[in-house]
Structures are given as C-alpha cells and as structure tokens.
Amino acid sequence: MLATSDLWFRYQDEPVLKGLNLDFSLSPVTGLVGANGCGKSTLFMNLSGLLRPQKGAVLWQGKPLDYSKRGLLALRQQVATVFQDPEQQIFYTDIDSDIAFSLRNLGVPEAEITRRVDEALTLVDAQHFCHQPIQCLSHGQKKRVAIAGALVLQARYLLLDEPTAGLDPAGRTQMLAIIRRIVAQGNHVIISSHDIDLIYEISDAVYVLRQGQILMHGAPGEVFSCTEAMEQAGLTQHWLVKLHTQLGLPLCKTETEFFHRMQKCAFREAS
C-alpha cells in the first residue's frame, strides 16, 4: 500500500503540506486537484522519496518509508513518477534505449529488457513511431515514451503529473485509453492535474487540496457536486456536474452517457 500519515513538509519556514492522511491503495485511479500552490507537486515528490517530510511519514507496504539508498531503490521500482514535461525524463535519442535505461542500470538480462520494452510500447500505443528519433516526436508522443519508461519497471503505482497538459483532443483521448489499460493490468494510478474533466471522468476517488490540507475526499460525483468546496479550492465544476446541481439532470460520468440518456428521454417523449 502507498499512503501518508500526518505528513508535514515545509520549505524553510513555510509549511506546504499540513498533516496529510491519504491512502492511495483504496482506488485504482486517485485524482489530486487544487489551485496552484496547494501542494500537489510537493506531495508527489514526497511520495516518490525525492523529498523527506519533517513530520509524519510516507507509508509503503504499511511501514514508514526507508530513505536508505536500498530502500529508495526498492520504492522506485514499485512507485514510478512521470513528470509533466517529458523532456525531464528522456535522455537518449532512440526510443528503445531510453525506455530500457532503468532496466540496464538494474542489471536486468537483455532478453527480459526486450520483452518489457515491447510490452510497454504496446501499452502506450507507440509501436508505430518507436523507430523514429525522439527529437522528431510530438509532445504527446514524448509523454507516451516517458510513461513507457516508467512501465518497464512493472511498478504497482504510477504517479502522473498533468498527463494531458499540452495535448490536443486526440492526444487527450489516447492518454485516457492508456491510463485505462494500465489500470486494467491491476496497477494503481495517481493523477495530479488541473484538467477537471480528466479527473472527473477517469478517477475513482478524488482528494481536493487547499493550502496544503485536505479540503474534501470522496467519489468524483460527490466531490465535484459540492459547490462550496469547489469555490474554496478555486476550482470549477465539470459541466456535467453543473447540469446535475443546477438543473437537476441525472449525474453522468461521461459526455457519451449524458447524450445517450438525453436521446432516450427524447425518444420516450416523442412516442
């Protein structure tokens, strides 16, 4: 399990995370939302062991995180982070070498590396551009290469920082499909994003952060229907939630579900 217990973190004298108690093992996809400066990025760096809290703990497999070199190495094979900017994680000019980088550092046999790289490329739907030089890839394609580089570790938890930032509608749709395939393999995904539509549509649970504290936690429909919490957090409601809260229409998870329901209602009225 990956969780936090009374997690406090400060930069110099400024507290950024204030007593956070979070559990990411309860839901396949957990969303983290909040205004800029609420602590999402700092939380991710604590979860991955890049930062160490001054008080409280990150819990891994039920125990406080071991910050020794061996402990952090073990964590990062099970908890992988993909940053918003893929350029921060891409080091090679060819895709296969970049994705295999971490495995070669771990001394994984080449046959196993080849198998894992092929699986990761398939999972992120990158086979059709895997032989192109990385500098020729689009921003969205580079994001998928960065995700593949995390997936080859066979991590149980994947931390995605703004996975849809900079993507066009087609790229965003592809990213949603990739996340769903990752979850279908039994993994947990934690998403930090300002993309409220993404969080509402794909998350099973949502934490709303405000000034380093948990303002609200629950299912997406419950969280985003709370107008007061959204206003306090400086967030906007998903348009499907607005239709539900303001017009009393059924709460739908996706645009497709909404229009399907509306068509059924129109058909019943016409008949």
TrEMBL record:
Entry keyword annotation includes Membrane: yes
Keyword list, A-Z: ATP-binding, Cell membrane, Cobalamin biosynthesis, Cobalt, Cobalt transport, Ion transport, Membrane, Nucleotide-binding, Translocase, Transport
NCBIfam families recorded: cbiO, PRK13638.1
BP terms from Gene Ontology: cobalamin biosynthetic process; cobalt ion transport
Record-level Gene Ontology MF annotations: ATP binding; ATP hydrolysis activity; ATPase-coupled transmembrane transporter activity
Function in brief: Part of an ABC transporter complex. Responsible for energy coupling to the transport system.
Family per record: Belongs to the ABC transporter superfamily.
Topological relation to the membrane, as annotated: Peripheral membrane protein
PANTHER family found in the cross-reference section: ENERGY-COUPLING FACTOR TRANSPORTER ATP-BINDING PROTEIN ECFA1, HEAVY METAL TRANSPORTER
Domain of life: Bacteria
Protein name stated in the entry: ABC transporter ATP-binding protein
GO cellular component: ATP-binding cassette (ABC) transporter complex
Protein's cellular compartments: Cell membrane
Matches recorded under PROSITE patterns: ABC_TRANSPORTER_1, ABC_TRANSPORTER_2
Keyword ATP-binding: yes
Pfam families in UniProt: ABC_tran (PF00005)
All residue ranges annotated as the ABC transporter domain in the record: 2-236
